[in-house]
Amino acid sequence: MKDPKKYSILIIDDDVTSISFLKDIINSDYNVSVVKSGEAGVELAHKMLPDLILLDICMEGMDGYETLNMLKVSDLTKDIPVIFITAYKDEKDINQILNSEATDYINKPFTNNLVLSKIKRVI
After folding, report:
1. Distances (CA, A) of 65 to 72, 84, 109
2. Helix, strand or coil for residue 69?
3. Domain 4-122: which CATH class?
4. CA distance 93 to 96
5. Which of 12, 32, 85, 120 could form a disulfide with 41 if both were Cys (CB 3.0 to 4.6 A apart)?
6. 1-5, 13-17, 48-52: range with lowest mean pLDDT
């Protein structure tokens, strides 16, 4: 198995609180990069080709669904697993997430164990 520190994770989120919590949880185990918009996330994903992307759904400008679509139509990034980070909890929103090309999702507020277990399951 690959050393976790060799795995790279890209966080795409415009909420500084979520970014801070996620970085605190995963920074010691993975190489973490952060951008605060979908456009910047797509651009950086093409350059760094991360092992995993943690993607917020609700962002200013290009939302998480649009960002995911941009990632999945590119030959460079289409196979990178994406875990949505979301505060959405109602059935309609969860069904939309499950019917997207995202690998999984994590509800806010999240716990350390949940985040780490979902990441380990994916990569």
Report:
1. 10, 9, 20
2. helix
3. alpha beta
4. 5
5. 12
6. 1-5
Give the mean pLDDT of the chain. 93
Distance CA 92, CA 101 (A): 16
Amino acid 89 reads K
Could you tell me the pTM of the whole model?
0.93
Tell me the per-residue pLDDT of 70-118, one tens digit each, with 9 for 90 and over.
999 999 999 999 999 998 788 888 889 889 999 999 998 889 999 999 9
- The DSSP output letter for 28 is T
- Write out the two tokens for 121: 């399951």
Reduced to 3 states (helix: H, G, I; strand: E, B; else coil), residue 36 is coil
> Partners of 53 in the beta sheet?
10, 82
**Domain boundaries of the chain, sorted by first residue:** 4-122
CA distance 69 to 67: 5
